[in-house]
Amino acid sequence: MLEQPQAFFYAQIMLWGIALLMATGFFILMLSFMNNGSIPRAQARPFVLAGQAIGGITALIYLLTRTTGLPAPSPIGWLISGREPIDVIGALVLVVLFAHSFLALNWQQKASPGQTNSTAQTTRLMP
C-alpha cells in the first residue's frame, strides 16, 4: 500500500462495501429459498437495514472523495488528498446505490408496524 496512490485506500473501502452489499442480498435470497419464496419481514429487516447502512456509507465515501477529497494514509502519515475525477463506472455504481436505497426505503414504508394482513408480514420474491 505504500507504493499505491492515496485514492487506492478508498477504492478498497468502496469495493468492500459493494461486496458486503452483495452478501446481504445473498442472505435475503437464501431466506426466500428457505421459506418457499416468501420472506418474513422480521427476518429480512436486519439485512435490509444493514444493506442500507453499507450502501449509504459506500455512496457517501464515493461522493466525498469526488467532491472534497478525504485524508488518506501515506508512508509519512495521513495526508489530505485532492478531489478525484468522476469516472463512468463509479457514477453508474452511485446510481445503483441510490436505487438500492430508494427500493429499501420503499420496502420499509410498506412494512409499517400498524399493518396486520398477511401480505404486510411476508414478501413474495418468486412466482
How would you describe this protein?
- There is one protein chain.
- The protein is mainly α and 127 residues long.
- It is built from four helices and four strands; from the N terminus they run H-E-H-E-E-H-H-E.
- It has helices at residues 7-34, 41-67, 88-110, 118-121, and strands at 38-40, 71-74, 77-80, 122-124.
- It has a two-stranded antiparallel ribbon with strand order 1-4. The protein has a two-stranded antiparallel ribbon with strand order 2-3.
- Helix 1 (7-34) packs antiparallel against helix 2 and helix 2 (41-67) runs antiparallel to helix 3.
- The longest helix is centred in the first third of the chain and has 28 residues, at 7-34.
- It is elongated.
Q: Main β-sheet, in a few words?
A: 2 strands, antiparallel
The total of helices stands at 4
Overall, the morphology is elongated
Mean pLDDT: 79
What structural class do you assign from the helix and strand content? mainly alpha
Extract low-pLDDT stretches.
116-120
Instruction: State the end-to-end distance.
Output: 48 Å
What is the N-to-C order of secondary-structure elements (H for helix, E for strand)? HEHEEHHE
Q: What's the gyration radius in Å?
A: 18 Å
Portion in helices: 55-70%
Provide the β-strand percentage band: 5-15%
Quickly list its features:
single chain; 127 residues; mainly alpha; two-stranded antiparallel sheet
Q: Could you write a compact summary of the structure shown?
A:
By secondary structure, the protein is mainly alpha-helical. It has helices at about 5-35, 40-65, 90-110, 120; strands at about 40, 70-75, 75-80, 120-125. It is built from 4 helices and 4 strands.
